[in-house]
Specification:
By secondary structure, this protein is of the alpha/beta class. Helices cover 33% and strands 21% of the residues. Strand 5 and strand 6 form a beta hairpin. Helix 1 packs antiparallel against helix 3.
Length: 169
């Protein structure tokens, strides 16, 4: 399997769950986990296109069932290019991500605490990742991660009109 990079991670967490330094350490760890399970080279170019956004929400704006949870709940939404992970790598990424969040939270890895961390892995279809004004495929992403080169930019694109269905007689 070829090596890829380009995870996009959205971490949703309760406001104030971590100090700024704790959150930054967790963000770095999550990026490292995803790159490792994606089997990506950890080059400067690969890291340049590996992003994480932390979305802090007010505790009162998060419900589990029909009530505000007693302990923080976390969602880690990870997008990677399609075909970069098999079942083994998805399972490893989800397990390590859950463990990293619980460790940062100061909680043990128990079934009850692990249920407070949801990891959603999304695979982005070939050619459906846009970067630098371009629709990229896995080979384009891999080339950028290694050499920091993008395909030639196609300018002046115009939508192609849909053909109108033929009128039936």
């Amino acid at each position: 399997m070829e090596k890829f990079a380009l995870p996009l991670i959205d971490l949703t967490l309760p406001k104030g769950a971590f100090s700024r330094s704790q959150l930054q350490a967790l963000e770095k760890e999550l990026l490292d986990i995803v790159l490792r399970w994606e089997r990506a080279d950890s080059t400067a170019h690969a890291k340049e296109i590996s992003w994480i956004y932390a979305h802090e929400v007010e505790v009162m704006h998060a419900l589990v069932g029909d009530s505000v949870p007693g302990k923080p709940h976390y969602r880690v939404d990870v997008a990677v290019p399609a075909g970069t992970m098999d079942e083994h790598h998805r399972a490893g990424l989800i397990y390590e991500t859950t463990r990293a969040v619980l460790t940062a939270d100061g909680s043990p890895f128990t079934d009850a605490d692990a249920m407070r961390v949801w990891v959603i892995l999304r695979e982005v279809d070939e050619g459906s990742w846009g970067m630098g004004g371009r629709a990229l495929g896995c080979k384009d992403i891999m080339r950028y991660a290694v050499k920091a080169t993008l395909p030639v930019l196609t300018e002046n694109l115009k939508p192609v009109p849909r053909e109108k269905p033929a009128k039936s007689a």
